[in-house]
Design goal:
single chain; mainly alpha; 3-stranded mixed β-sheet; 8 helices; 50% helix; elongated; DciA-like
Length: 173
């Protein structure tokens, strides 16, 4: 099906034709509004809808809504050349959906805390299923920081007294 056939089909339905006409009018008004706005604001005006006595301007952030509201009198004057019955300009914020955003960020990979990794290791040590215990160890190994030492590891790694019988830490007196 060619574009001409699609366009002809869409024009054959009165409701669709009316919607297309309204969309064309709104697009013409948006073009007029964009010419009035300073460059930084233009990129943030998404859509214009004409109501009986006002123009509704949609922006993607509240940060841009305030300067647009200050320019409302100029916007009304510009739109008034096309639609003389327009008396006011309303600015609405419509944040972009994730799939509409221009920049796509990779999803942030969540990392395990060292505290959670310690719990996984402790749970793995008490398991009877070696496959599940190995899975817990692999998951714990993906933690950001090595898990906190367990009591057994503290005693293993603590320096010993010259006699070699007791650790020199707080426990050895």
């Amino acid at each position: 099906m060619t574009m001409r056939q699609v366009f002809g089909f869409l024009q054959s339905n009165a409701a669709i034709e009316a919607g297309m006409d309204a969309s064309r009018r709104d697009q013409a008004v948006l073009t007029k509004v964009l010419k009035v706005l300073p460059q930084p604001l233009r990129a943030h005006c998404q859509r214009v809808v004409i109501k009986p006595d006002k123009v509704v301007l949609y922006t993607n952030s509240a940060v841009w809504a305030t300067p647009l509201r200050f320019l409302a009198p100029e916007i009304v004057r510009a739109v008034g050349t096309l639609k003389p019955d327009i008396q006011s300009c309303q600015v609405r914020v419509r944040p972009q959906a994730d799939n509409e955003r221009e920049t796509h960020r990779e999803p942030r990979r969540r990392r395990l805390s060292s505290h959670a990794a310690g719990h996984l290791i402790a749970a793995a040590q008490s398991m009877t299923d070696p496959g599940l215990a190995a899975a817990f160890h692999r998951l714990a190994a993906s933690a950001e920081i090595q898990p906190p030492p367990t009591a057994d590891r503290v005693l293993e790694n603590e320096p010993r007294s010259p006699e070699g019988s007791q650790p020199t830490g707080t426990g050895g007196r």
